[in-house]
UniProtKB/TrEMBL annotation:
Protein name, per record: Alkyl hydroperoxide reductase subunit C/ Thiol specific antioxidant domain-containing protein
InterPro entries: Thioredoxin-like_sf
Domain of life the protein comes from: Bacteria
Length: 210
């Protein structure tokens, strides 16, 4: 009896778990599109692009020094987990006047992990506000061009989020001041969009081999 129980634990349970999660990907394999055709950030800063990237997009504002905690939360809970995925990037939009503060932040991020996929775009106040408004969310930037919320933008420059969030209904962004929200909601949604692209890639490869 004991031997049978051990065999069940070792072989049957992993199979059941796999089938459960596999069905979850099939049933929840699409993260809703909330805004289509977000303009490319390269219109503001040619050194970066949203095209062909799964992007976590944020707006740190003028006081980058004061918002480092947000970046560190994001780095620990999201970036470290997903940075090895191809075409994944973090992109923070910052006023041109804050370049020195960004360099300091970049150095500190590099001490925590390899921050090569942390990118920063610099623009004028008007450019940043105009770009943010094109996301067409229910959120706003403050007077310093800052919001604690970050956004998931897919490779085709579509803003992804939730249409049936249990707390907000339509959920455009994720609050980086809340570790619980990053853990319990954003991590799940990033997993979904990455799984979506992986499944599409497998399908394309399978079609080519026929």
């Amino acid at each position: 009896m004991k031997k049978t129980f051990v065999l069940v634990i070792l072989f049957v349970f992993p199979l059941v778990a796999y089938l459960f999660f596999a069905s979850g990907v099939n049933n929840f394999g699409k993260l809703p599109t909330l805004t289509e055709n977000v303009p490319d950030i390269s219109q503001i800063d040619p050194s970066v692009t949203l095209d062909g990237k799964i992007t976590i997009l944020g707006f740190l504002g003028r006081d980058v020094e004061g918002k480092k905690g947000n970046a560190f939360n994001l780095n620990q809970k999201i970036y470290k987990r997903f940075s090895e995925f191809h075409d994944f990037q973090m992109l923070m939009v910052v006023p041109e006047s804050s370049k020195d503060q960004v360099e300091s932040l970049r150095e500190e991020l590099n001490e925590l992990s390899n921050a090569e996929k942390w990118n920063f775009a610099f623009g004028t106040d008007a450019e940043i506000r105009s770009f943010f408004n094109e996301l067409k969310t229910d959120l706003t930037l403050d007077s310093d061009l800052y919001t604690p919320f970050v956004f998931i933008v897919d490779k085709d420059r579509n803003l992804r989020g939730r249409t049936d969030d249990e707390d907000e209904g339509i959920k455009y962004g994720f609050n980086t001041t809340s570790v619980a929200e990053l853990n319990n909601k954003m991590e799940d949604d990033v997993k979904i969009i990455l799984a979506e692209y992986r499944l599409a890639l497998k399908k394309n490869n399978a079609d080519r081999s026929k």
